[in-house]
Fold:
Amino acid sequence: MEATADIALIGLAVMGQNLIMNMNDHGYTVVAFNRTTSKVDEFLNDAAKGSKVIGAHSIEEMIALLKRPRKVMLMVKAGQAVDEFIEHLLPHLEKGDLIIDGGNSLFTDTIRRTKYLESKGLLFVGTGVSGGEEGARFGPSMMPGGSPAAWPLVKNIFQAICAKTPDGEPCCDWMGEDGAGHYVKMVHNGIEYGDMQLICEAYQLMKEGLKLSNEEMHQVFAEWNKGELDSYLIEITRDILAYKDEKGEYVVDKILDTAGQKGTGKWTSISSLDLGMPLTLIGEAVYARCLSAMKEERVAASKILSGPAASQGERKIKGDKKAIIEDIRQALLASKIVSYAQGFMLLREAAKEYKWNLNYGSIAMVWRAGCIIRSVFLGKIKAAFATNPNLTNLLLDGYFKGVIERCENSWRRAVSEAVLSGVPVPAFTTALSFFDGYRSERLPANLLQAQRDYFGAHTYERIDQPRGKFFHTNWTGKGGNVSAGTYTV
Structure:
């Protein structure tokens, strides 16, 4: 059996099949394998018919077809399945060979797997792949990390098959060691949660607050997609709002208002708590999905709990409709800036914690095309980090500071109108609260620290003393002067 293939791919679900055909289109010979081997034959006789794709019916056969160093990409369910395939592959691989995990794996698993395989003389890459079915087939955004020595082995393949920016730059670059690639993909997905929730809140404000029809909202989103909010998610929202079934009825109105979450948004929120970064918007987006899933409870509560009401068919938000829509647009833009600012805050802190040398401008560039959050907006983020690689927060960049200042009054009006009319906008609201908190020289945590010291002797710092020097007050005269050590609340 002649070793002629450039790479093997295990897992012939939609993403796996489309990545194989993408690689084939770019001149690479791919070995296709699946645990259920009948799927290999189905694939070769259908989507891969007439291509250079080779089928394998065993791991031994697959490995024998690969040129050295062997490159095997896994597109299987994250978790135990990845570990199982790694163990199946190990007896057949040799020093310098490479295993690639292209699924949505938890970054800590990728850190563990990188160390494990390197200890056996092998290389490992954990790469985020974003863009869904269409992206996998015609150009995804790819975020690889892992063993640095592996990057030269896959760079040409990955940068050939990935999406390209309008300037022709590949939307794939090396993110960093061990779990960096999967971490960047996780944050991408967290930001995606935030973007989607913000768009849904804009939709809800227009639908419930202004009583706009689907056609009117379709026109609004079509207009928004021509300007600063130009993005894939605004584009598909425009299309969804206009889509009708065979009966001529809007499909969006027939969809049950409950949403789940696969885990990456939750992982992003958990990581932000672990690292002490206030990713409030992404957290609210995750919780909004959780609240939506409580459909039966919400239906029951709606019959008991009341709030601001409007007469049948009347608008909840009064005033000039065009001006209010513009307020909502600017609130969406300002909130989106906060979401990305928080995401990059988390990336910066994770880089410190895990000793990754993340290139934030490169990350923004990788997200410019192919992925779900692709937008013209990301070009401005790339430019911000190109101007100042040490930028601590996007809100401090001149361009974004200017946009926030321009949008601020509209943002506050939109949030106020939503609150007064009883339309829930948790992401809009928390974005504004974060902005107000971040720009505040003084927050009420002094009182919080006093409370902690009062009930638990947890100590506090003073404004008239050097940082790092701690004090305790015997608030009641009965507590004594012994302060707490490691116990925290």
The mean pLDDT is 94. Residues 95 and 120 are 7 Å apart (CA to CA). The beta strands are 7-10, 30-33, 54-55, 71-74, 98-101, 123-130, 141-146, 176-177. The radius of gyration is 26 Å.
